[in-house]
Amino acid sequence: MKLIFEKSVKGRKAIEFDLEVLKQEGLLDEGLVRKELDMPEVSEVDVIRHYTALSRRNFGVDNGFYPLGSCTMKYNPKINEDMSRLTGFTQLHPLNTFNQGALQLMYELEKDLCAITGLDAFSLQPAAGAHGELTGLMITKNYFEDKGENRKIIVTPDSSHGTNPASATMCGFDTVTIKSGADGLVDVEELKKQLDSNVAAVMLTIPNTLGLFEKDIVKISKAVHDNGSLLYMDGANMNALLGIARPGDMGVDLMHINLHKTFATPHGCGGPGSGPVGVVAKLKDFLPNPSIVLDGDYKFSNNTKSIGKVRAFYGNFNVLIKAYTYIKSIGRSGLRKVTENAVLNANYMKEKLKKEFDLPYDMVCKHEFVLSDKGVPNEVTTNDIAKRLLDYGYHPPTVYFPLIVHGAIMIEPNETEGKKTMDDFILAMIKIKEEAKNDPDLVKSAPHTTVVKKLDGVLAARKPILKYSK
Amino acid sequence: MNFIPSTETEQEDLLKEVGVSSVRDLFNDIPDSVKIDKLDVEEALTEFKVKKKLEGLAAKNKILKSFVGAGSYNHFIPSVVDHIVGRSEFYTAYTPYQPEISQGILQAIFEYQTMICSLTGQDVTNASMYDGASAMAEACIMACSISKKNKIVILKSVHPDYREVVKTYCSAYSIKLEEVEEVSADEKTAAVVVQNPDFFGRVTDLSKIKEYIGETLLISGVIEPTSLFVLKEPSAADIVVGEGHSFGNGMNFGGPYLGIIATKDKFKRQLPGRIVGQTTDTEGKRGFMLTLQAREQHIRREKACSNICSNEALCALAATVYLSYVGKSGVNLGDVCLQRAHYLYNKLLEKGFSKVFDAPFYNEFVVKLENVRELHSQLLDKRIMAGVLLEDYYPEMKDCLLFCCTEMNSKEEIDELLGAL
């Protein structure tokens, strides 16, 4: 398909702006002024047709099943979108002090997140999960500096998200990776060996990226606390815990939540998300400035011990509206039902698929599970299966993650999918395995039905073309 | 409201297949000591009641006549933008890891990258950062990694929130940060950070700064990006960072916004975040995919050049649609902002306000008047936000007001402000 620049027609215009005031010449020296503005020249119809055509070359949750593990691609309720478009929100300047509605919404959302996680305070400032992690690790760093302790190590299991060690590096921490036990979980004795006075925090994803709950969590948190360290929880998989168990009760000291995963605000092709950070009372003072307090009115408040700001203003406010609307729409019982159904669906798919595919960690899972490509005939790989799934009309699962599973296929159906959808997907997987046996080339050369065929990633990286030139 | 399709019968079927009698059995791996009976969260409201509640909250905010910018700009958003961004093929999709079914967003981001490079006069850019301030902070880390030096010099005329964010990141990364009044650099300095137009609206010639600091990297922040429609592209900078929300994204009480980061070709492998590249498929057809991923956290883990994963892709899409729509009329838009700001400025001087700076400006400027705080608050009572009191950010700037005009401030509205003084 042509680029918008290739549709440009000299002199064509969609809009003009009215000057209204008398034009003054010479306001800017020649040397400060742009010589040419190189932008496409298109009409309104051109713009609408072009981007509508592009939208049809894109696949979202509204197009079909999206079992992308660790990403919680649940249905995004339409009321969330409508509420986020109310002009009282969209047109509110961040420095406008007639902001009580906005502050109340943020304050109440923080309170609900505290109730859901069992933590004492939240900041809604981080713009995404990784941003939340970074914020959490800055809090960790400042907490120990404030105590006069010099702790330089973050311990994380080998199944952790890549953002965990990357965030640690950005805070000047060194990462120590511990090997998962044979059951895919943290081996408490192995962990204890790593714990010394240099360890600032242990970062765990709960349930972990294999979809397994750390059954020894109470022992783990005790060991971490006995060592004077903090327990950080990556909350990417919070969809498995709503109304069932709370991180705060497990001994988690701080965590981030991905509102775009658990709380149904959309992923928007990669963002905007929102990654609020929650902490126990002793870390509260270190949260980003400003926090919101209720003192007659809702007010911003700054703390001198705060890590500072991690972005301009207060957070991805428009995303917060959607998460708030979602919590109000499903309420206390609905939150629990979300988790119950997400976990039930995952276990159902796991039981069905393990008959056909290798399931390295065969036990009750939480919201997701991980298959491997071991035993798939004719050296058909996970990537081949993923591409063939495109032909069947599905977004593939997360692939090759976590790294500890060979050819990992990480499946997260989530609660907004029904039995028929799951059964159809399971059938597609079984059919692809049959194809791998009988007609492996069909699978290896997939996809066949998409607007472009398999793309040359090596070419893209070796000779990068990162913008259009005439 | 209920977004769960499974009926009770279906749930029974699923349970039977799993081999357990109740959903509770699926949570036996969680110790009883940490399980809870119920959450301290309100029960669900009906859709109608949710709407009433949210409309009530929205109504508690008052949208004022505004002459305030300072990092968030009130620009016209053409209807086409929301109609495209509101297409759920876009907003309900994930990061385009599967390019064959994500050509829509990948091509749009490729177009976005082209437009941002053209506007900034740089060679490469990424698919977006969280916002302008965090992009500036990441640029500082990037500059230290490129130059193998560990000191950043930032001008005090950079937006106070942005300096705060840079400070937070530098402190975490143990980068030495110096706030200065005038551009300066020594052999230990990785980069000098400026904003153009600066927080006070002043426009400067970046090439002179670059000439002065020589080898030291120049990071230039563009926080009001419509200025790029009329001002010379900041090609003299080594890294351009910016806030792009003015392009088709609302003010939204400060977020989500659109972080821009662009740089020279030779630094592309140090650039954080997602980058879209052009390639071909097995049949030779043009296609787009995420590329240069060896920089990123999911490949490099602790050695990645940043931890960024999610970005602000949908905001970048809005900007792409906006820029396509506005096209070359951007010059005209920029001129309207420029002219109206100068109209207001001259009228304020006539009204007895005094000049604070002599430098040229685009759509923001500073003026001074005795006891201006009182006047500012009287105007607020009349539902007019008459600029920002700079004393709140710079204690030495008593009685100074930072004003902003955009195409949304009609001449009539400006005259109304003048009349209310």
Q: What do these coordinates show?
A:
By secondary structure, chain A is of the alpha/beta class. Chain A has three domains: 3-55, no CATH class; 78-330, Type I PLP-dependent aspartate aminotransferase-like (Major domain) (Aspartate Aminotransferase, domain 2); 342-461, Aspartate Aminotransferase, domain 1, CATH 3.90.1150. Chain A is 36% helix and 11% strand. Chain A has helices at 44-55, 78-84, 87-90, 100-117, 129-147, 163-170, 188-194, 217-226, 247-250, 259-262, 317-353, 382-391, 419-438, 440-444, 457-462, and strands at residues 121-123, 153-157, 174-178, 199-205, 230-235, 254-257, 277-279, 291-295, 297-301, 369-371, 398-399, 409-411. In chain A, the strands form three sheets. Chain A has a seven-stranded mixed beta sheet with strand order 1-7-6-5-4-2-3, sandwiched between helices. Chain A has a three-stranded antiparallel beta sheet with strand order 10-12-11, with helices on one face. A two-stranded antiparallel sheet of chain A has the order 8-9. In chain A, helix 9 links the parallel strand 5 and strand 6 (254-257). In chain A, helix 2 (78-84) packs antiparallel against helix 11, helix 4 (100-117) packs parallel to helix 11 (317-353) and helix 11 (317-353) crosses helix 13 (419-438). The radius of gyration of chain A is 25 Å and the shape is globular. Chain A starts with 43 loop residues before the first helix and ends in an 8-residue tail after the last helix. Chain B has 421 residues and is of the alpha/beta class. Chain B has two domains: 65-75 and 329-420, Aspartate Aminotransferase, domain 1; 79-327, Type I PLP-dependent aspartate aminotransferase-like (Major domain) (Aspartate Aminotransferase, domain 2, 3-Layer(aba) Sandwich), CATH 3.40.640.10. In chain B, 36% of the residues lie in helices and 15% in strands. Chain B has helices at residues 8-18, 47-60, 79-85, 88-91, 103-120, 132-147, 160-173, 206-213, 297-300, 313-326, 330-350, 372-381, 411-420; strands spanning 65-66, 124-125, 151-155, 176-180, 189-195, 217-222, 239-243, 259-263, 276-280, 286-290, 354-355, 364-368, 384-385, 388-389, 400-404. Chain B is globular, with a radius of gyration of 25 Å. The chains are: A alpha/beta (470), B alpha/beta (421).
